[in-house]
Write a structure and sequence with these properties.
The complex is a heterodimer. By secondary structure, chain A is mainly α. Chain A has eight helices and one strand. Chain A has one domain. Chain A is elongated and about 60 Å long. Chain B contains five helices and three strands; from the N terminus they run ααβααββα. The chains are: A mainly alpha, B alpha+beta.
Chain lengths: 193, 102
């Protein structure tokens, strides 16, 4: 029996995220947001996505494509992914706006910080979960759980929001670095032609 | 008179396992380069190169060569003729399979 072309396309789509670069970028983003929050410079967190989006393609071109090749997936997958990523972006903008509003409320002393300190991490957990669903990457669900746990712990203990993002950012960066270094080790550069 | 109905013609260019594997891969992609097809098909570099040349000569696959970041990049895409050949192959195979008992 011929393989189902849709499942083949889905498998190829998922294999393009196996190198760990996305995990590394997600972890570094969280670290930047956490550092920005810790230093009371939330602008650092807001430039993180722009910085990472602009470096994504050159890094993939330099390290990933010589090893696993270049591919443009089918039109159906490209459309579906684009729609999903726009939804994630919209969610991210709403989450960022909400996070900044809460931060300003806490600074003004009009909200009890212990209740909302965990919310930024919970919003980021939601973002990671939705991205994982859109890109069909189950491990992003695990990262979302780590973020959610960090957010809940932060809220219960009554800490500043930055430790939850720094800790989960460190965990995700370490997981991404491990995956990416394994990819570089196990996928030698292939002679192009 | 034979009781066996006339079987549809199988295109041997498509039917060969290595080429069928490559055409199937390309059928779900817009385009892919040599390294990607090498990794995903499991074929050797020599075999992949020979099969892609054959498919290109038959007009089933389009080849585009360019340089990206000072590295050569050859990409392959299924042509409309390639897509039609694959669809015809599928139809032929399905009608043969329909004649076989479970």
């Amino acid at each position: 029996m011929l393989p189902d072309p849709r499942s083949l396309e889905d498998e190829l789509f998922q294999s393009t995220w196996d190198d760990g670069l996305l995990d590394l970028f997600l972890g570094v983003s969280l670290l930047l947001i956490g550092v920005g929050w810790h230093l009371d410079q939330i602008a650092i967190g807001s430039i993180a996505p722009a910085l990472l989006v602009s470096t994504w393609a050159p890094i993939r071109q330099r390290f990933v494509e010589p090893r696993s090749g270049y591919v443009e997936l089918g039109a159906r997958t490209q459309r579906k992914t684009r729609r999903g990523l726009w939804a994630v972006l919209a969610l991210g903008v709403v989450a960022l706006g909400l996070g900044v509003a809460l931060y300003l409320q806490v600074r003004a002393g009009s909200s009890p910080s212990t209740l909302i300190a965990g919310l930024p991490a919970l919003l980021l957990a939601l973002g990671a979960a939705v991205t994982g669903a859109v890109l069909r990457i189950p491990r992003l669900g695990l990262y979302a759980l780590a973020l959610a746990a960090a957010g809940v712990a932060t809220g219960l203990i009554g800490l500043d929001p930055s430790p939850s993002m720094l800790v989960s950012g460190l965990i995700i960066t370490a997981a991404g670095a491990l995956r990416f270094s394994r990819f570089l080790r196990t996928h030698p550069v292939e002679e192009a032609r | 008179m034979s009781a066996v109905p006339e079987l549809p013609q199988i295109d041997t260019l498509v039917h060969e396992p290595a080429r069928l594997r490559l055409l199937t891969l390309l059928s779900v992609l817009t385009r892919a380069d040599f390294v990607f097809l090498l990794k995903q098909s499991g074929l050797s570099r020599g075999n992949l190169s020979v099969q892609m040349t054959r498919l290109s000569n038959a007009g089933l696959v389009a080849i585009e060569k360019r340089f990206v970041d000072k590295r050569p990049r050859t990409t392959y895409a299924l042509t409309p003729a390639g897509r039609e050949a694959l669809a015809a192959y599928r139809r032929a195979l399905q009608s043969i399979l329909a004649l076989l008992p479970e």
